[in-house]
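Note to self: keep these together.
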Amino acid sequence: MNIFNNKIVWITGASSGIGKEMAIKLENAGANIILSSRKKESLEELKKSLQNIEQHLVLSLDLEHSSNFDELAKEVVQKYGRIDYLFNNGGLSQRSNASETPLEVDRRIMEINYFGNIALTKAVLPYMQKQKSGHIVVISSIAGKFGFFLRSAYSASKHALQGFYESLLLEEEGNNIKVTIAYPGKINTNISVNALNSSGDSHGKMDHNQETGMSAQECVEILLDAVKKEKKEILIGNKEIKAVTLKRFLPKLFWKVIRKQSAT
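Structure:
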């Protein structure tokens, strides 16, 4: 049975990369999709490319400014009657040394990746509690498992998500609300292009790690399979994800290996 058929699915960061690919695959699976990001024009173009246009909703939002999230969640429920899945995919990466990064850049990354993320979850959660069902899917990063060069604020924000959502998972089990945390490694998206540098501007470059990474299509296939199986967490990527196991069981070797890896 296709578990996504006729379900109400809200995706942030839907205008490109992993989020866009999720929207395409979930629409093919029969879901009704709320497409969200800051880029309304890109979302409208994506909606027009989907088959059942009338079933979907473009709802632009900015994770850096979350004061209207309760109103947006209410709008979704008024239109569809429920929210079955929330894919918290939107976020922002970093390419700068900690010592060269002003605190305001750290705060901005944390505001978008952590506070904006959990603010939308808190806006949606009362509806899932009332309907006694729901599934929250969080797109973290392998940097949420260990720190890495040029990723201090980004890694910190992803570590924070793990603590929040593992706690939420336990608290909401009685309400039949599921949580899946995904930890992608090197995925071929524009995440490095849009990453912030020490000046708070876009990095503007496609890193070799992203250019040679797993395709967004394959990433999403693995992710959705994990969601179907209601897995609590899933590592997605190629050989780089082995570093998580290495850190756990052979930490001395992990630190020897990781310091030799390219930051970009």
